[in-house]
Write a structure and sequence with these properties.
The complex is a heterodimer of chains A (344) and B (312).
Chain A: H1 7-12, H2 16-39, H3 48-71, H4 75-92, H5 99-117, H6 119-142, H7 145-150, H8 153-156, H9 165-172, H10 181-201, H11 208-230, H12 234-267, H13 274-309, H14 313-333
Chain B: E1 15-19, E2 25-29, H1 33-72, H2 75-105, H3 113-118, E3 120-124, H4 132-156, H5 164-177, H6 189-194, E4 196-200, H7 210-222, H8 236-239, H9 244-256, H10 259-273, H11 282-302
Antiparallel strand pairs in B: 1-2, 3-4
Helix pairs in contact in B: 1-2, 2-4, 4-5, 9-11, 10-11
The chains are: A mainly alpha (344), B mainly alpha (312).
């Protein structure tokens, strides 16, 4: 130990509990010192011995605390020990600092495992999305005024009911002269990421707003599909959409599923308490959501660049189909032995 | 563990017991709502400041680029450069809004700068490890709790009059802002989903042991090497009147060391044990009484007998 306790001080102490304290004080101070340095963010200055000593000291001081609680009535010492054990506990059981190792575990199985774990919710979200598309189509085909209600102005431009075949065709082909592709992609990403965070976070209200959001977004798609169908451009439109759409819609599907997962766990917690069910579901869904953000980055890249650069329908289908296949393989076929579930 | 008898004088409704994986129960104090609101305001002003500085920096870079490129007459290059800057701006705004809290709370301190300034941090509710998923979940929820209704509110009140949308946005905001008032652990919606809570992160210095300080002082004063005899010796009956609660109160009085507080305590004890209060040596009397009372109560503890207070 760094400082041997003063023997005379220990002998001089009148009380047995004070002698106990003086004998162990060096360990406490050592732990206090390590914890203080970690709290101040000085990892570099910490020697290897100190890093190795931390868990050992933590357990030593924790046992000092339990002994002191049974033998000592020195309130100040007890309070100090409680605080010290608590501070060390925060560090010993804090988040694992290495972002790299977390990312490796996340990409190497953690993400796909949690996607599979919410399979039922994803299936429900998929049904809802299909239903939303159908609803959008049916609404617009019964009354084309619905189109303006559903499709926000910024998307519409030339894509309005009654637009000619050529005008519509121009919106999906021949954009390669467009200059601001990168900025457009960045904007789309930021926008879509907020939408999917919303779909996830609204799961909190038992998942119903998540589903409504999915229905609304897909109804827009259904309405546009109807529009292009009327101009005989259905296949071309789907091709145009599929370049990024397979990735983006998949991401929105997953975020809706994640939101629904939380909502469902809270509505039907089973034998767990509602709070416990919510937090378990929340952690699993958060992992899915981190991946969703990643998918949206890829989708935005595809949307901003690949879609405009590949100017023919078969090529677009090839890109979109490949992406879809890759995602499906990654989530459902790629299984690695995960050690002990997703949370720890 | 039998932690039935409180080890500290604690009365707050914010105190919770948490059991570590080693089986040691640790007292935690939940952060008060006001502290948390303060921490959030500090963090939001940091974020706002960062956004402002980044925007200004990018605009000035854009202005410089445009000027240079205009001289060189490279219209195409301006477009690309500005577009690149715009991408950086969007990415930076997204990161400030979403990654600021994540970045800081994932560190070993488990607290954003605002939380550190106000002395609070986040922890797992069940005493287990605080995982990255928890931090992510609690911060994604912040989007619907705070940013979305505020954006919604701002856009609803854009036209000058607050219609139904404004009322809806305000109601939305209030539901989440008042959420911590309607559950006993003061969780906000994000904490509820993530399984985390916000606690105080106190720091405390180890204070000197009471019994040794007196002896050392005695040795210095007396100059002898042998144990100085305590000036006051109390009989078993004198010590039996008080319990642990009174002992801790006495300890606090002695540590604070305010003469005007010592005097009434001294008189109360003298009255209780039937001594006639003198004057001038209150502190020596109280320290002797403290040490002997503690010795008595602690030896009782070792035998498994505890006396919580004078009524026990």
């Amino acid at each position: 130990m760094a400082a041997t306790p003063d023997v005379t001080a220990i002998e001089a102490a009148a009380l047995r509990s004070d002698r106990f304290r003086l004998e162990r004080e060096a360990d406490w101070k050592h732990l206090d010192d390590i914890v203080t340095r970690l709290e101040k963010g000085r990892f570099r200055k910490l020697s290897d011995e100190d890093v190795l000593a931390l868990p050992v000291l933590y357990r030593t001081v924790a046992s000092s605390l339990s002994i002191a609680r049974e033998t000592s009535l020195d309130a100040a010492t007890l309070a100090y020990l409680e605080t010290l054990v608590q501070r060390a506990w925060f560090i010993v059981y804090g988040p694992r600092a290495s972002l790299g190792s977390w990312l490796r575990r996340f990409l190497g199985g953690g993400w796909s495992a949690s996607v599979r774990a919410i399979g039922l919710d994803v299936a429900i979200a998929l049904m809802v999305m299909i239903a939303g598309t159908v609803v959008g189509w049916l609404l617009v085909s019964s009354d084309s005024e619905w189109y303006h209600a559903l499709v926000p102005g910024q998307f519409a431009n030339a894509r309005v009911p009654g637009a000619s075949h050529d005008a519509l065709r121009a919106t999906i082909f021949g954009n390669d002269g467009q200059d601001a592709l990168g900025a457009f992609a960045a904007y789309l990403f930021s926008n879509n990421a907020q939408v999917s965070i919303l779909a996830f976070a609204l799961g909190f209200a038992f998942g119903i707003p998540s589903l409504m959001l999915l229905v609304h977004n897909m109804a827009v798609l259904g309405a546009m599909l109807w529009l292009f169908h009327g101009a005989g451009l259905t296949v071309d439109f789907i091709g145009w959409l599929s370049v990024h759409g397979t990735t983006e819609l998949f991401a929105i599907l997953l975020s809706g599923g994640a939101g629904l997962h939380i909502g469902r766990s809270m509505a039907f917690p089973g034998e767990r308490s509602v709070l416990q069910a919510a937090s378990e579901a929340g952690r699993r869904a958060a992992q899915v959501m981190t991946g969703v953000i990643l998918m949206l980055v890829i989708a935005a890249g595809l949307e901003g660049f690949a879609r405009q650069l590949i100017d023919n329908t078969p090529g677009r289908f090839a890109v979109g189909g490949t992406m879809l296949l890759l995602w499906l393989l990654y989530f459902y076929a790629f299984r690695r032995e995960t050690d002990g579930g997703e949370s720890i | 563990m039998s932690a039935a008898i409180p080890t500290r004088l604690r009365q707050s409704t914010r105190d919770r017991m948490m059991v570590t994986p080693e089986g040691i129960s640790l007292p935690l104090t939940l952060a008060s709502r006001g502290t948390r609101a303060g921490a959030l305001i500090i963090d939001l002003s940091f974020i706002g400041f960062l956004m402002f500085v980044t925007t200004i920096a990018l605009i000035s870079i854009a202005g410089g680029t445009a000027a240079v490129a205009a001289k060189a007459e490279q219209q195409n290059a301006i477009g690309h450069a500005l577009q690149f800057l715009f991408m950086i701006w969007i990415a930076a705004m997204f990161l400030f809004r979403n990654a600021y809290f994540l970045f800081f709370e994932l560190g070993p301190r488990g607290a954003t700068p605002g939380k550190r300034i106000t002395g609070i941090r986040i922890a797992a509710r069940d005493g287990a490890r605080l995982s990255a998923e928890m931090v992510i979940a609690r911060n994604l929820l912040r989007d619907i709790e705070l940013f979305l209704p505020l954006v919604f509110l701002a856009s609803a009140s854009d036209g000058g009059d607050m219609g139904a949308a404004g009322i809806a946005a305000a109601a939305w905001f209030l539901v989440f802002a008042l959420f911590p008032f309607f559950n006993k652990d003061r969780l906000r919606a994000g904490d509820l989903i993530a399984g985390s809570w916000v606690v105080e992160a106190p720091r405390r210095k180890l204070e000197a042991a009471m019994s040794t300080r007196r002896v050392e002082a005695g040795v210095e004063a007396g100059g002898g090497t042998a144990h100085p005899r305590p000036a006051f010796t109390f009989s078993d009956g004198d010590l039996a009147v008080y319990g642990e609660y009174e002992l801790q109160t006495l300890e606090r009085v002695l540590r604070e060391h305010r003469p005007d507080a010592l005097r009434p305590v001294y008189e109360a004890i003298c009255h209780k044990i039937g001594w006639t209060p003198g004057a001038g040596d209150e502190r020596a009397f109280l320290e002797a009484y403290y040490t002997q009372l503690r010795a008595r109560l602690e030896s009782g503890m070792r035998m498994g007998k505890r006396k919580a207070d004078k009524f026990a």
